[in-house]
């Protein structure tokens, strides 16, 4: 397909949103401009990025490409998407030592310092084998594959990745590697004339702000001074340089000795802005001349002998501090605040960058083109104001299927009172009970699916969960709670009460509904909570196994970003209250006063990210509920694709009933997809249209033809599967097999073998190759899978060739090999293992193979 005169090879028929996204990206690249794109979840944003950039790069091979995202998990997902395309660029994935290091001794302590020490002494065997890893790793790989290959060939993934980056077409990395000048310097990243794509860029302002800030405690400075004394003994020839360092650090420590002027915040502090910072630093003898001397220091001249005398923490801190002070003294002081104070007993100095454009525009001025994308970037004006940059191109891509998504702002619940999650209301039991009733009411409507609930804080999560637990027990407070759903103790009491029996209360619809619901909704076995530690992966794994789970999560937490709640995992997303930053934090107060609208933007950035957990691909569906009356007045701050579907819900009962109707409609739609049409089986929401299989929401243009498997948008032709390449019918390459090649050749009649291979692969496939000889041929390629071996013999090739030429005939059963093989049903999407090592299994496979041609 040609877009803006560039031919782009998609792995499937692109969505309109992908065509528009590719068009804007190519506009930016061709015209050397910047662009901002909002592409909703499920629109195939990652594929569009990769295909557009690589198609353009085919005509501009000298330009390096940097693709960035917020987390390493998101980068791995981008690499996985790259594999589904026809493009095979040289790839590099950059990460820190903490992520990539394999040396167990280094991982026991400060991995950065220990690594440098081991490398310097020649005691790291992985470092010695880094070149071996560079030669062994495939062109397209993710972080885990780099680590695994490093273990196999005893090579260092960290240093190998840095070597690979020198010749890589695409370098994947977290976006702080681009916006932080110190990291760029450390990793050797040269941005000049490069293309930078920032995916999941809704946090780009925070990354820029963080990159230009530095916070130091007096304890840290004291440690650095002690390290300086130790270095002085080991490097006396650099006496003058070390004396300058010593003077500089002591003067920085003096900066914390100021009178605290603000005690109304959580911690006492003193704040300085703009010229006040320069005046304070000058008063403490931290002046431009001193900073200039620091820049001339041997420590900044790549003097390895002197650098070896210091820890990596010391070097990085000095470099960051000097860089920030240089910006302040070069006219950027109005963009900074200096906060002196901190927690009691821990004096701290914090140079806080208020204007992220200082870092962002430093990147823009060097690159060939830059594009930022996310599912939640609108309104664009807020991003442009934050970055002080007007993007040349912008796009709000349309959602793929809006009828599969519903969104409601809930004004009140069963009592008719407005839902208002301010601090004063949120602490009351009445409010918490209302929240729980909403959660249970929505969850009951999506039986067989998950409900994800976002709350403003971990305190709120624990409060709601504790109240749920109370309501599920026989406590007096719990028995009075839950007027909609009740609890087990209350239901039992009502059921056994003589008076209630006599008046028929136990048959009342309201009461019977409570009885039907208490077993599901008032036991908390199906309720999971996100905690403020590293256990979320275990929690999420348990959540996925439950039939009707509820997850209580936190805005800006792990569940709100980078977690894929696709299909039944999030049929409903409930947003309770608003995630307001703590106005008693000095940094929040400074930003709120410095940039009008910043505070509200922070709230809705977190809200929009939480909304994005619902509906993850084209065939997914679900509902979003915003439970706070304040959302009505700020609807315009919601992301565009959600705002257009938003409705107001006056009464909780009506909202729940409407959602039940939506769920029934969506489930009927799912059932409609899970049927056989024109002899093609459609299962798990994968459609077959005109013989074309749609899998994982991706339509495959040529579908399943002649038994070629279609997976992740790739048609398996002539044995091509998972990156195994068949060239001229002969060579099979496996990028995952330690870099080796599995080859088979026919020396006598190559052309005849090529023909046979194509015929065989027209009906079958193997994981790592196709047998071109008889069952005893040494060139037979076998792959162990679940204890069985798969392979195809000459006999089967000939037999299937007859099927292809002559149709179904009664052939001799003894022509079929005794080795089992994996049979693929052509008239559907279902993989079926037939054939064990017994003859009956072979016959069943043979009969099934033939029967499909009679249909």
Properties at a glance:
single chain; 855 residues; alpha/beta; Rossmann fold; Fumarase C, Chain B, domain 1; 4 domains; seven-stranded parallel β-sheet; disordered C terminus; P-loop_NTPase; EC 5.6.2.3; hydrolase; iron; nucleotide-binding
* Strand line-up across the major sheet: 5-6-4-7-12-3-13
The largest β sheet comes out as: 7 strands, parallel
Per DSSP, the total helix count is 36
Shape: globular
Whole-number total of structural domains: 4
Mean pLDDT: 77
Oligomerization status of the protein chains: single chain
Identify the CATH architecture of the largest domain: 3-Layer(aba) Sandwich
How widely separated are the two ends? 36 Å
SS elements, strand count? 34
Task: Tell me what you see in this structure.
- With 855 residues, the protein is of the alpha/beta class.
- It folds into four domains: 2-89 and 169-209 and 368-396, P-loop containing nucleotide triphosphate hydrolases (Rossmann fold), CATH 3.40.50.300; 214-349, Fumarase C, Chain B, domain 1, CATH 1.10.275; 402-462 and 523-670, 3-Layer(aba) Sandwich (Rossmann fold); 688-854, no CATH class.
- 43% of the residues lie in helices and 15% in strands.
- It is built from 36 helices and 34 strands.
- The protein has a seven-stranded parallel beta sheet, with helices on both faces. A seven-stranded parallel beta sheet has the order 16-17-15-18-19-14-20, with helices on both faces. A four-stranded antiparallel beta sheet has the order 8-11-10-9, with helices on both faces.
- β21 and β22 (680-681) form a beta hairpin.
- The relative contact order is 0.08.
- The model is unreliable at 476-486, 517-522, 676-681 and 696-855 (pLDDT under 50).
- One of its GO terms (biological process) is nucleotide-excision repair.
- It holds the Pfam family Helicase_C_2.
- This is DNA 5'-3' helicase.
- GO terms for molecular function: 5'-3' DNA helicase activity; ATP binding; DNA binding; hydrolase activity, acting on acid anhydrides, in phosphorus-containing anhydrides; iron-sulfur cluster binding; metal ion binding.
